[in-house]
Amino acid sequence: MTLGSFVKTIQNIMRGDNGINGDAQRIEQMTWMLFLKVYDAKEEDWEFHEDDYVSIIPEALRWRNWAVDRKDGNVLTGQSLLDFVNNELFPKLKNLTVTETTPLKKSVVKAVFEDSNQYMKDGIRLRQVINEIDDIQFDEYDERHAFGEIYETILKSLQSAGNAGEFYTPRAVTDFMVKMIAPKLGERVADFACGTGGFLTSVLNVLEPQIETVEDREKYNRGIYGIEKKPLPYLLAITNMLLHDIDNPQVFHGNSLERNVREYKKSDKFDIVLMNPPYGGTENESVKINFPADLRSSETADLFMSVIMYRLNEHGRAGVIIPDGFLFGTDNAKVAIKKKLLEECNLHTVVRMPSSVFAPYTSITTNILFFDKTKKTDAVWFYRVDMPEGFKHFSKTKPMRVEHFDECVAWWKERKPIMDADADTYKAKDYTVQELAERGYDLDLCGYPTVEEEVLSPEETIQIFHEKRDSLNARIDKRLAQIEALLGVKR
Which residues make beta-bridge pairs with 295? Predict the structure, then answer.
């Protein structure tokens, strides 16, 4: 059985359990078991290399001592297994003693289980799932890295369950952004809404070949930092970090927007920020007060843009995915954030992406902002990534691939304007800050030509309306502002 089909096998076993309702719960059930299995494999490593290593997990609760079926007839199953998991395993792991001196590689166990749940009610099926997971041997290097196949299958299942939109970014996009940012060992890389760790793992894949010494290994282990608000993606991120040999993963469960941005110190800043902030959401007033009055937007993505600017080191660089609404929005907060970005950072490139990059679960159009803190912005280059030849749109079976950015990568080095062949518009062009200011900081440039709308079903139309509502509202505000300017109306 392939690692990909392994996930489907487990989901099929769980479908017969009355305690689980839907794919989201099945995946959550699977992931805490995967975590314990992976953690046990990591502990074998730590025990081999550290003579005095002591597990934070009580001996009877370690995976090897209750989950492994040794074929001796003594394995826990049925009601005995349910009683053990519900009355021993979960309560004790949720209440592990953790202090300020507890190493991260130990304290993550409590952090993972604080918000995890055990849904299954059929002890026989629970044993079947555990056996399937235990058959994977994560103690082998190749098997650990093959976890990526399991991991991506889980993410795709989450998409179809309607629960992953805000924390899943296609690998092609993360790999492209990391390639353009080019992280080096010794630099600290952060994602303040890291989801399942997609950006962080793309970074680690670039850093790992750079390791040559023990000191390099330490730099690799200390090089990444993440925060994730939701428990399920946080659990997946921690598991993913452990499998990439990050023994003390600096990935924390929390909300990056809940700290006052004025309080950040040098130690809170990073050399690189790579992220896809949640968008379309809103935060309450107690969160907004953490930002200067002019930056207090009602849009989550806007607030994250401010956090990034406050937490980026001098000479640091960033790659951030932002929806269209940020580019052409003209409300006071958006304009203030864009002015701050242009005045305090060097926004050198905006890469505009096709609307179906995040298919199949959303069609909202997004952009990648590349900027650094080397100087203030003189001019911004815009580049439009067009749909590849032979593609009408991206989909689950025909996703975006990293090679679809090849033309952009080639253009990146020479930076020349590109005119559309069949229209009086630009595919790539630079605009001065003065020109952007004269547009009222509307950055809707080098966009996609208007095409005839496809006729959709009522259900699809409603879904797309909800996804694009924020962008449409921003466009309406923009047009109203233009009309008022023509009429000489002052707000």
Answer: none
